[in-house]
């Protein structure tokens, strides 16, 4: 393995057996696993993740129920929660609750770098890494601040827009990844639109790895069980492991 990172996503509570996806992701080569904490108005998420969040909420999923479920999961890779500030701000112990459930990272995309101080302090106090996002249109000085203040990795958003399956990787994605890698020693992971193993390979030529979300959640919404989705995660893993591999002479 050459160190390219794979971070698959699952919406917490999307099915009663949803933690089975977490477990199979870990067995299928995930380096970290992103857990979506469903919110009623997910402004950054496209139709697939919105549908997944809606389904989870319909089934009664809450932050508390999801964290209780995760507390019973034993995997050997870090768990990274992704949610919106509306949920965070109403729970003073939010970051401590994450840590108690075994979650070691947090992504809150609607908190800009200018307003991140309180959340960053709370996360640090709880031992949770706050991961920040950067977009293709982020100006240079702001990009440097994001790279400096992010923890664990920097999440590079490949397109201006919402999450979702796409036919090809956005043209600006590689440039953004290269710009960020020049600013930080943290891994730079590309997300948004990484829908096929070929996209992951293309992204990993410039970045340190990828986040795969909507493509997997579309499978879950269509009825795929953990083993079926895990097989696709394994395909992404195999594709990433081949990036930069030596060609036999």
Structure commentary:
- The chain is α/β, with parallel strands linked by helices and 249 residues long.
- 42% of the residues lie in helices and 14% in strands.
- It has helices at residues 19-27, 47-58, 63-71, 85-89, 94-100, 117-126, 140-149, 172-181, 197-204, 214-221, 226-241; strands at 5-11, 33-36, 79-82, 105-107, 129-131, 133-134, 154-157, 188-191, 209-212.
- The chain has a nine-stranded parallel beta sheet with strand order 5-4-3-2-1-9-8-7-6.
- α1 (19-27) runs parallel beside α11, α2 crosses α10 (214-221) and α9 (197-204) runs parallel beside α11.
- 48% of the residues are buried.
Keywords:
alpha/beta; 249 residues; nine-stranded parallel β-sheet; disordered C terminus; 9 strands
Present the secondary structure layout:
Elements: E1 5-11, H1 19-27, E2 33-36, H2 47-58, H3 63-71, E3 79-82, H4 85-89, H5 94-100, E4 105-107, H6 117-126, E5 129-131, E6 133-134, H7 140-149, E7 154-157, H8 172-181, E8 188-191, H9 197-204, E9 209-212, H10 214-221, H11 226-241
Parallel strand pairs: 1-2, 1-9, 2-3, 3-4, 4-5, 6-7, 7-8, 8-9
Oligomer: single chain
Strand content: 5-15%
Contiguous runs where pLDDT drops below 50 for at least 5 residues: 160-167, 245-249
Indicate the radius of gyration in whole angstroms: 17 Å
Secondary structure: number of strands: 9
- List the total number of helices: 11
Helical coverage, percent range: 40-55%
C-alpha end-to-end distance: 20 Å
Order of secondary-structure elements: EHEHHEHHEHEEHEHEHEHH
The profile of the biggest β sheet is: 9 strands, parallel
Q: Tell me the strand order in the biggest sheet.
A: 5-4-3-2-1-9-8-7-6
The chain-level structural class is alpha/beta
Average pLDDT number: 90
